[in-house]
Amino acid sequence: MTEISLCMIVKDEEAHLEGCLESVQGAVDEIIVLDTGSTDRTKEIAERFTDRVYDYVWQDDFAAARNASFAYASKPFILWLDADDRLERSEREKLIALKGRLDEHVDAVMMPYRCGCGESGASALTFERERIVRRGAGFVFTGVVHEAMTVGGTVWHEDIVVCHTGDHRESSNRRNLGIYEKWLARGRRMSARDQYYYARELMSAGEIERAQQAFKTFLMQDGWIENRIDAHVQRGNCLMRLGQQGEAKAEYLSALACGAPRAEALCALGGCCLEQGDLHAAVFWYRAAMIATPPEHSGAFVQKDAYDYIPALQLCVCYDRLGRTVDAARMNERALLAHPGDEIALANRAYFERRLARTNRGDENEESCIIRKEKSD
User: Fold this and answer.
1) How far apart are CA 376 and CA 206, in angstroms?
2) How far is residue 345's CA from residue 127's CA, in Å, rounded to a whole number?
3) Could you give the 3-state DSSP secondary structure of residue 181?
4) From CA 296, how far away is CA 249, in angstroms rounded?
5) Which of 217, 276, 285, 358 could be cross-linked to 363 through a Cys-Cys bond (beta carbons 3.0 to 4.6 Å apart)?
6) Rounded to an integer, what is the distance from CA 355 to the centroid of its chain?
């Protein structure tokens, strides 16, 4: 059975590290923890699981730290995780089974990464990451923040889900923006990928005008197509928040022009039209979102709810405003199929039960009170 080294970089992760390491016990053969300056119990916790704990002088460069952690690995394959990542028991068993199939002919393994995992198991975003690489392949991380490897050769796509339990905290957002600002202040030119993630960090920080300008700068560069699609959508979202609906709609349409229509862009167009009061156009875009197909193995950020729950709930709103109560109620049930027990859809169901009962009695005067699902940024 092929052996795997787990390589991690950590700082002040006493709240998360134990859960991460427990989740991979029995699935990895070596654990390497590179500490970048913890002042809490992080190193003490790490030392319960491994004697391969090393200090690293932080250089405002996540890629450099990742690469330094890989240099300590001794096993044929390397798995990397963050402290707030987890493998459920079923996924750990899949990883153990994978070790029995891995050999020197495999260069990298792509695995789904679910971010924003909640108690229900739903996730805000899902995308593939280059999660396991053959040590001898020589792949390296690039990117000062949101680092990644470009892998090639024989690449497997495995359904072994890594769940990210943390959130994009204000402190990490400030840290990431600070790193980018330092790089810019030093006169360094950011790559297209760094420019894209810099724009996303600005947006997360609520600096909407700067974010839309940063996305515009990225779109003038030769960036990865998946980043370009998302940049059009996110710049459109920024412009919507700035009250520039016409320009926002143009960005969403530009996202559609990049390839097979993505539900994220279609829902954004629906939301724009709904905001403008064009209910029939909103219905068109939301219905299109419901028949769109999520991309597979593309590495794209996929907002699963944009392909079922969000358009169903928004169609419920549109149909209710158009007086199509039965259609609205049916769409609300579609939303409940996507998220059983959803409080918004359950409240809507109660409203429609009252509304349809009144209609059957000939009393249709109840004011609309269904809940609109706000479009996620």
Assistant:
1) 14
2) 27
3) helix
4) 26
5) 358
6) 38
What tokens were used for 34? 């590179």
E-only strand ranges, 240-371: none
Q: What is the pLDDT of residues 301-360, one digit of tens each?
A: 999 999 999 999 999 999 999 999 999 999 999 999 999 999 999 999 999 999 888 777
SS3 of residue 292 by DSSP: coil
Please name which of 286, 254, 257, 256 lies closest in space to residue 270, comparing C-alpha atoms.
286
DSSP 374: P
Buried b (16+ CB within 10 A) or exposed e, 68-83: bbbeebebbbbbbbbb
pLDDT tens-digit map of 111-150: 999 987 654 445 578 999 999 999 999 999 999 999 999 9
Q: What is the rounded CA–CA span in Å between residue 337 and residue 341?
A: 9
DSSP letters spanning 105-135: T--EEEEEEEES--TTS--SEEEEEEEEEEG
Q: Can you tell me which residue has the tokens 């000939």?
A: 362
Quote the pTM value.
0.90
